[in-house]
UniProtKB/TrEMBL annotation:
<feature type="binding site">
    <location>
        <position position="221"/>
    </location>
    <ligand>
        <name>a divalent metal cation 1</name>
    </ligand>
</feature>
<dbReference type="InterPro" id="IPR032466">
    <property type="entry name" value="Metal_Hydrolase"/>
</dbReference>
<dbReference type="InterPro" id="IPR018228">
    <property type="entry name" value="DNase_TatD-rel_CS"/>
</dbReference>
<dbReference type="GO" id="GO:0005829">
    <property type="term" value="C:cytosol"/>
</dbReference>
<dbReference type="InterPro" id="IPR001130">
    <property type="entry name" value="TatD-like"/>
</dbReference>
<dbReference type="GO" id="GO:0046872">
    <property type="term" value="F:metal ion binding"/>
</dbReference>
<feature type="binding site">
    <location>
        <position position="111"/>
    </location>
    <ligand>
        <name>a divalent metal cation 1</name>
    </ligand>
</feature>
<feature type="binding site">
    <location>
        <position position="173"/>
    </location>
    <ligand>
        <name>a divalent metal cation 2</name>
    </ligand>
</feature>
<dbReference type="Pfam" id="PF01026">
    <property type="entry name" value="TatD_DNase"/>
</dbReference>
<dbReference type="GO" id="GO:0008296">
    <property type="term" value="F:3'-5'-DNA exonuclease activity"/>
</dbReference>
<keyword id="KW-0479">Metal-binding</keyword>
<feature type="binding site">
    <location>
        <position position="148"/>
    </location>
    <ligand>
        <name>a divalent metal cation 2</name>
    </ligand>
</feature>
<comment type="similarity">
    <text>Belongs to the metallo-dependent hydrolases superfamily. TatD-type hydrolase family.</text>
</comment>
<keyword id="KW-0540">Nuclease</keyword>
<dbReference type="InterPro" id="IPR050891">
    <property type="entry name" value="TatD-type_Hydrolase"/>
</dbReference>
<protein>
    <submittedName>
        <fullName>Mg-dependent DNase</fullName>
    </submittedName>
</protein>
<keyword id="KW-0378">Hydrolase</keyword>
Length: 306
């Protein structure tokens, strides 16, 4: 089985044992990556949500085999653009240069989009303004786009529709929307990224069940979006053949265990199990189909050893 996690926030300090600025245990990223490989994860896209984070994602991808990066500005980070030395033009010029200097490792522009659930971090005007600048990056580099969309009342779809000619492939990651939103996104030729947050409720499950398999891509969005016992999807894991690694609270960490409530790439197997159950497809069959889709979207022009 070969799986690619298209959304992992591996630059988060929790993967180095640091929580809210305090060290709770030693750096266990190598063990996390080892667990992912044991689960069949052959590739991981490390998400870049700002200029600095994108550079860090690239560096991480050079330190560990099978890792790649995205480069962009998350909507909730839009306000930092104006505070960059030289302003917005310099910020996006540096992002463009980062991409050009690392075409062997950067496989998408993003994470970019709109998020109206967290306007306390960046208002609508800034989000929309700097979302548009990232279509320029996609147009200039030919890279696919990695999108974020939360509670935008149709603004996200409108912006995509107006700029659809400027990029090729794209995925709306961590999708939690309605059947109507699915239809709009599929009509725009986009793919849908599914993780634990996409599978919380019975309504979520019905939506994912209706998405064509050839438009689905899997992710964890770790360290967030794990499948929890309270989620509607949890009941579909009872017959899962893959055994979830033991987890412990961070205060009781040991080298063989996951940290409780800290999602990680190996848990994409649980997402796979739920989606396979919903579509009535064997996990191995679904994994193979989604693997081919993922390679076609993100790795068509990138050398890899998957």
């Amino acid at each position: 089985m070969r799986i690619i996690d298209i959304g992992a926030n591996l630059t988060d300090p929790v993967f180095r044992g640091i929580y809210r600025g305090k060290r709770a245990h030693e750096d266990d990223l190598p063990r996390i990556l080892e667990r992912s490989r044991s689960a069949g994860v052959v590739g991981i896209m490390v998400t870049g949500g700002s200029l600095a984070e994108s550079a860090e994602a690239v560096q991480l991808s050079r330190e560990h085999s099978g890792l790649f990066a995205t480069a962009g500005c998350h909507p909730t980070r839009s306000n930092e653009v104006d505070h960059h030395p030289g302003g917005a033009d310099a910020y996006f010029a540096e992002l463009h240069q980062l991409i050009n200097d690392n075409r062997d490792k950067i496989v998408a522009v993003g994470e970019c989009g709109l998020d109206y659930d967290r306007l306390q971090f960046s208002d609508k005007a800034a989000q929309n303004k700097y979302f548009l600048r990232q279509f320029e990056l996609a147009e200039a580099t030919g890279l696919p786009m990695f999108f974020h969309n939360r509670n935008t009342g149709g603004d996200f779809v409108r912006v995509i529709r107006e700029n659809r000619h400027r990029f090729g492939e794209g995925v709306v990651h961590s999708f939690t929307g309605s059947n109507e939103e699915v239809r709009e996104l599929l009509a725009l030729g986009l793919h849908i990224g599914i993780n634990g947050c996409s599978l919380k409720t019975e309504e979520n499950l019905a939506v994912v069940k209706a998405i064509p398999v050839d438009r689905l891509i899997l992710e964890t969005d770790c360290p967030y979006c794990e499948i929890r016992p309270t989620h509607a999807s949890h009941k579909l894991l009872q017959s899962q053949p893959w055994m979830t690694p033991e987890s412990r609270k961070k205060e009781r960490w040991d080298s063989k265990s996951m940290v409780k409530s800290r999602n990680e790439p190996c848990m994409i197997r649980s997402v796979l199990a739920v989606v396979a159950n919903l579509h009535g497809i064997a996990e191995e069959t679904l994994a193979a189909r989604i693997f081919e889709t993922t390679c076609s979207v993100f790795f068509r022009d990138v050398q890899h050893d998957f």
